[in-house]
């Protein structure tokens, strides 16, 4: 209930008008076993930096059962905000670590989540 309430609040701007959507980013990465420690440290720092950004509603990472694959989910206020984030030092630093530690290119997918889908169920 709390997460959906927070999401509903986030989608309503301070002037009371509804935001059109949130922008969901999904990054899936497979890390080289020998670089796992370096990657995990960089991921931890990246999550800390992203979660502090005003335009990022939520960020989380999931380690998959194989132990070397990770999925990062980021919810941004919009596509423009995410693209601005891509130019930040924190994002560029994490990108460099990914180049050095991944055993294959990451898979990135994006989707705009309509605000109308994010309603608060008061039942």
TrEMBL record:
Q: Which GO terms describe its cellular component?
A: cytoplasm
GO terms under biological process: regulation of amyloid precursor protein biosynthetic process
Show the InterPro entries listed in the entry: ABM_dom, Dimeric_a/b-barrel, NECAB1/2/3
Ranges for domain ABM come to 23-111
Q: Name the domain of life this protein comes from.
A: Eukaryota
Alphabetized Pfam families for the sequence:
ABM
Q: Which residues cross the membrane?
A: none
Q: Which PANTHER family match?
A: EF-HAND DOMAIN-CONTAINING PROTEIN, N-TERMINAL EF-HAND CALCIUM-BINDING PROTEIN 2
Q: What is this protein called?
A: ABM domain-containing protein
What is the organism of origin for this protein?
Answer: Anguilla anguilla
